[in-house]
Amino acid sequence: MTVLEPSLLQSLDDSVGDVSTAATLPPVLYTSPEVLAFEREALFAHEWLCVGRADRIPEPGDWFTVTLCDEPVIVVRDKEGGINAMSAVCQHRAMQVCDGAGNTGTFKCPYHHWIYGLDGRLLGAPAMERTEEFDKSAWGLPRLQVELWQGFVFVNFDPDAAPLAPTLRRYEPYLGNYHLADTVCPGTFTLHDMPWNWKVMFENFNDGYHANRLHQYVQDFCPSSMSAFPEPWDDDSNVIFRTAGYTHIDGGFNATHHTIMPVFPDLTEEERTRSTFALVPPTLCFGTAADQCFFFLVRPTGPETIDVEIGYLFHPSALDDPLFEHKLKLSDVGVQVFVEQDQDATAKVQRGLRSRFAPRGRYSWQEESHVQFNRWLVQRYRRHWPPA
């Protein structure tokens, strides 16, 4: 018995219409192991997956690993300054070649000492001279496509995938004055095995409806009523975003409701009175404010669990402030209030989705982003849905 019936796919038509008539997605899409297995092949194997910031590996030989749907991947800066991504699975006996982060000139599998270059080529394989028809050039680490966008590194398992950047153009006018490629990221932290589906995470991140309801008092400066969806949906787009207006200039997501870090100097007055919240599915949630940007990298670990890597971006001048570390702590404390409230809400949403009474609810106009996300998702479901 499969849940991936034609009737389930047909029912998704109810979730992609106008926000005034659309219904939420079927609860089974958030709870079923079979659905996640389908998504891994339909989405994660073909879409651009954000793995972090390029400045995490500034020097030749700098590398880190990331696991994407059980696939260990190496991301490395090569000797020419480019960025490569490749499987971390040794092509001899499938041992993971490396884990964590570091700097190196080559990768040596600790099991049998096969040696790989920074481009994945197999450079050395001891005692293989008696193996018939063994050609080192055929046994390199499988390569992934790589693309940089706004200082973020994206990878793609699909060698035929079209470029990412053209599909994000709708959002770029809202980012130009941040000069994101030049921002500084003081590090990230990861929350492991959070108990909700990856789509619940995406929906909550870009949900204007709960802004000053769930976050009453701490987000009153950025109320739900000031959410806006300035760009019409485009089926060729890979970004879903909204703006969130402030009641005053230079609002901040902390107890003061005002900025703590230096405001990005090139922002217009309009840009200083709003945030943007964006999804680049299926891995990146990204937001802007007057004094910082923030990103969540979402990695499913099961149908109802995810890891989330969280980081902040600041204007480079922020590091010149002798009180930077103290201000960073103050800023982070403010964000953690939102994170804790969201964690409680999303955990309870996931619990409710397992209920026999879980609804296919209706949307508020302040949830237009959810319908756009549904359109992105259902388009890909239809493309890869198994035949009856």
Compute the gyration radius: what is it?
22 Å
Number of strands: 17
The SSE string, one letter per element, is: HHEEEEEEEEEEEHHEEEEEEHH
Task: Domain count, please report it.
Answer: 2
Query: What is the CATH topology classification name of the largest domain?
Result: Naphthalene 1,2-dioxygenase Alpha Subunit, Chain A, domain 1
Distance between the termini: 12 Å
Sheet with most strands: strand arrangement: 1-10-9-4-3-2-5
Task: Provide a descriptive summary of the structure in words.
By secondary structure, the protein is an alpha+beta fold. The protein folds into two domains: 6-46 and 165-384, Naphthalene 1,2-dioxygenase Alpha Subunit, Chain A, domain 1, CATH 3.90.380.10; 49-156, Rieske Iron-sulfur Protein. The chain is built from six helices and 17 strands. The strands form three sheets. The chain has a seven-stranded antiparallel β-sheet with strand order 1-10-9-4-3-2-5, with no helix packed on it. Strand 6 and strand 7 (115-116) form a beta hairpin. The longest helix has 30 residues, at 324-353. The mean pLDDT is 96.
Name a few traits of the molecule.
7-stranded antiparallel sheet, 2 domains, Naphthalene 1,2-dioxygenase Alpha Subunit, Chain A, domain 1, 20% helix
Write the layout of secondary structure elements.
Layout (H helix, E strand, L loop, with lengths): L5 H6 L21 H12 L4 E5 L8 E7 L2 E7 L5 E5 L13 E3 L3 E2 L6 E2 L5 E3 L18 E7 L2 E5 L31 E7 L3 H8 L5 H4 L12 E2 L11 E6 L28 E7 L3 E5 L4 E10 L2 E9 L10 H30 L14 H17 L4
Antiparallel strand pairs: 1-10, 2-3, 2-5, 3-4, 4-9, 6-7, 7-8, 9-10, 11-17, 12-13, 13-14, 14-15, 15-16, 16-17
